[in-house]
């Protein structure tokens, strides 16, 4: 058989979702059809998502009778650095299996005159991007915040910076579905909606597939950090390639400063804010985008950063030291606005930790270890039984 063959049940019938009518174009990805058997082992059953350099598919491992996620890299993306970082995590980060999603195996999938790197991962639950997070209990959300911070502490202790901490790379565990027939899996995750890739001369048939919708009822309390495509060891040469989404990127990184654990901590506090407030702490709706939001809430950026912004639309007003924060957009105002149900003492604890991480100077930001031991952070966790 070829690396990717079509799979049928013993009765010759297939059930791999419903075709829909939609027009899109292909990219430099490996064309997949639901029902393909990858590497003579992994039966593709659903799509989980896609990223900047890969597509991710739910598959059933026929050798070990388990469901997995296949991350199939675009042509030209080897994923070598990500694989190497995951090896480093498994070797050197304490209690790695309890906090991080690392690959189970990797292999090369022959393509059209090229090869695609495939990483096989455990099948995980919903990420923070899912819209149901706001409906989760505060205990569930604060438990996730605590576990994520513990993961960051272990990563930083090993001298590794994640560099891409955002809501898509943090996820809950997942109750196993491998014992269920495909019809039951589709009932739980939603039937795949798909369309044949509309390219006449494509070297292999493929499908555009809508992603699975993993319900909250299937998630477990465990929370994990994954996707190490931009991660680096602090001892390795600095690189400017790649940033987290602007909403999660620290202002120092946006002004050409090298990656550091402090950058991860800024991104972490954005995620904490989303979990605690149910919203982002900084506005992006005004002129100036996310940087304008920083200035509205925290005041002017350091004057010495002027001229270093990584994007072309820099504004002199961001660095004007005579500016003061807008009282309606300060961290204190945002906390009170989004969490009027929290008592004043709790809100003061939240303001305390946010203000000591959302500081422009990376050297003054709380580290993961400092935040874990901070009395205000511990008080918040204790309030929610974490």
Automatic annotation (TrEMBL):
<keyword id="KW-0808">Transferase</keyword>
<dbReference type="GO" id="GO:0004674">
    <property type="term" value="F:protein serine/threonine kinase activity"/>
</dbReference>
<dbReference type="InterPro" id="IPR017441">
    <property type="entry name" value="Protein_kinase_ATP_BS"/>
</dbReference>
<dbReference type="GO" id="GO:0005524">
    <property type="term" value="F:ATP binding"/>
</dbReference>
<keyword id="KW-0067">ATP-binding</keyword>
<keyword id="KW-0547">Nucleotide-binding</keyword>
<protein>
    <recommendedName>
        <fullName>Protein kinase domain-containing protein</fullName>
    </recommendedName>
</protein>
<feature type="binding site">
    <location>
        <position position="71"/>
    </location>
    <ligand>
        <name>ATP</name>
    </ligand>
</feature>
<keyword id="KW-0723">Serine/threonine-protein kinase</keyword>
<keyword id="KW-0418">Kinase</keyword>
<feature type="domain" description="Protein kinase">
    <location>
        <begin position="42"/>
        <end position="377"/>
    </location>
</feature>
<dbReference type="InterPro" id="IPR050494">
    <property type="entry name" value="Ser_Thr_dual-spec_kinase"/>
</dbReference>
<dbReference type="InterPro" id="IPR000719">
    <property type="entry name" value="Prot_kinase_dom"/>
</dbReference>
<dbReference type="InterPro" id="IPR011009">
    <property type="entry name" value="Kinase-like_dom_sf"/>
</dbReference>
<dbReference type="Pfam" id="PF00069">
    <property type="entry name" value="Pkinase"/>
</dbReference>
């Amino acid at each position: 058989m070829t690396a990717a063959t079509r799979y049928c049940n013993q009765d010759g019938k297939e059930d791999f979702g419903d075709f829909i009518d939609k027009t899109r174009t292909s990219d430099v990805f490996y064309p997949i059809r639901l029902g393909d058997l990858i590497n003579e082992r992994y039966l593709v059953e659903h799509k989980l998502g896609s990223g900047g350099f890969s597509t991710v598919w739910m598959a059933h491992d026929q050798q070990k009778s388990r469901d997995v996620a296949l991350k199939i890299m675009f042509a030209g993306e080897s994923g070598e650095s990500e694989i190497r970082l995951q090896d480093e995590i498994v070797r050197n980060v304490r209690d790695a299996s309890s906090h991080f999603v690392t690959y189970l195996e990797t292999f090369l999938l022959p393509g059209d005159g090229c090869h695609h790197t495939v990483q096989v991962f455990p099948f995980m639950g919903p990420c923070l991007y899912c819209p149901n997070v706001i409906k989760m209990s505060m205990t569930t959300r604060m438990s996730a915040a605590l576990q994520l911070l513990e993961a960051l502490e272990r990563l930083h202790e090993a001298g590794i910076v994640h560099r891409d901490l955002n809501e898509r790379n943090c996820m809950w565990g997942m109750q196993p579905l491998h014992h269920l027939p495909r019809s039951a899996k589709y009932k739980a995750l939603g039937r795949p909606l798909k369309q044949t890739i509309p390219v006449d001369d494509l070297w292999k048939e493929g499908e555009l597939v809508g992603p699975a919708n993993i319900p909250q009822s299937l998630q477990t309390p465990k929370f994990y950090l994954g996707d190490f495509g931009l991660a680096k060891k602090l001892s390795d040469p600095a690189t400017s390639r790649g940033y987290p989404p602007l909403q999660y990127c620290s202002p120092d990184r946006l002004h050409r400063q090298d990656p550091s654990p402090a950058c991860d901590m800024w991104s972490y506090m954005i995620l904490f804010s989303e979990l605690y407030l149910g919203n982002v702490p900084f506005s992006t709706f005004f002129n100036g985008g996310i940087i304008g939001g920083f200035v509205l809430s925290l005041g002017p950026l350091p004057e010495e950063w002027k001229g270093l912004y990584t994007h072309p639309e820099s504004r002199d007003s961001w660095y004007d030291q005579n500016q003061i924060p807008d009282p309606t957009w300060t961290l204190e105002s945002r906390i009170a606005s989004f969490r009027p149900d929290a008592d004043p003492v709790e809100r003061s604890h939240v303001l305390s930790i946010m203000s000591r991480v959302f500081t422009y100077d990376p050297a003054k930001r709380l580290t993961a270890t400092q935040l874990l031991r901070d009395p205000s952070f511990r008080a918040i966790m204790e309030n929610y039984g974490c």
